[in-house]
Design a protein that fits this description.
- This protein is mostly beta strands.
- The chain folds into 2 domains: 4-184, hypothetical protein (bacova_03559) (Immunoglobulin-like, Sandwich); 193-325, Lipocalin.
- The protein has 2 helices and 25 strands.
- It has helices spanning 4-22, 87-103; strands spanning 26-27, 30-31, 40-44, 48-51, 61-71, 79-85, 119-120, 125-126, 130-133, 139-146, 158-168, 172-174, 180-184, 193-202, 210-212, 216-222, 225-229, 242-254, 257-266, 275-278, 281-282, 292-293, 296-298, 303-311, 317-325.
- The strands form 5 sheets. The chain has an 8-stranded antiparallel beta barrel with strand order 14-16-17-18-19-23-24-25. Strands 4, 6, 7, 9, 11 and 13 form a 6-stranded mixed sheet that branches.
- The radius of gyration is 25 Å and the shape is elongated.
Length: 326
Amino acid sequence: MKNMKNKIILTISFLSAIFLLSSCLKDDADLWKEDVAGKMYATVFSPGLHSSSIQPVPDAVTFSFMVNIATDAVPSTDVVVSLAFDNAAIATYTESLRKAAIANNDTLDNGEPDYKNYKPFPGAVLLTPTLTIPAGSRTGTVSFKIANADTVQLTGAYMLAVSITGVTPADIMLTSNMKTYMLALPIANQYEGVYTNDGYFKHPTASSSRALSADKTLSTINKNTCELGLADLEDAATPAYFIRVTVEETTRVVGGATVNDVTITNVYPGGGPTTLEQINEGDDLITFDSGVQFNYYDPATKKFVLRYHYNNGAAWREIEEILTKK
């Protein structure tokens, strides 16, 4: 979490740069000039960086993107576009992240730059190495697939890049900043996803106590840990109010169901709650049985039942949450 604010600013700035570059055609590295009427360009319809979490399962998953012929008149002949995986684009993007981390002094505890070191996802197949866009049309769809995501490292940083390598007829040009589609492929654990929330925030000031009902997103940290916002205090601009829930291998029975113990930890005590502790016993939030041990995950119903409290040197605030995967 070191220098998280810098990391967020860097990410926003970098993505903004991608958007700006992607929104303009470049002809020989210059912005597309007004006097290029009649020229044609083969472009990726939405170039630059995209991201899609995938489950660690052996099943094949297919992804698609569109190729567009940018021109002032619809092509009167078929257009044949050649494509290929572009590992060099991944290396270039990763190197830009490394340099940006150094420039922003975004470092790990050991002093090394803190950035995502992306590697090509292994075993991908390009389903559309050649795309034919028929005369009278501007667009076509390119597809590729991956499989065996269960065999890769869960915490690895994976990406695929597909670039346009050639076009027929030869008078259709390529533009360097709009020829590549990049897809980051973070591996999701089985708990990642969007959850409904039936919860309550107990504040020392009664008027500040409130129900919790907004959906919550759990994001993968490792194979059995997810990160989520603390109660309704999550702020995307800072890591201050986030917790992590770890589903343990130990099980017990609650209300006749076998559930897994859950451990809650404070993500950023330096900027969020000074102290955060899980409440380990109380009336169950679902069965209302007394003396039930918290916190737990029910794999049958895909529910997290959480009870924890925190303070910042003052009175405790207590949170009760029943998170159900949508």
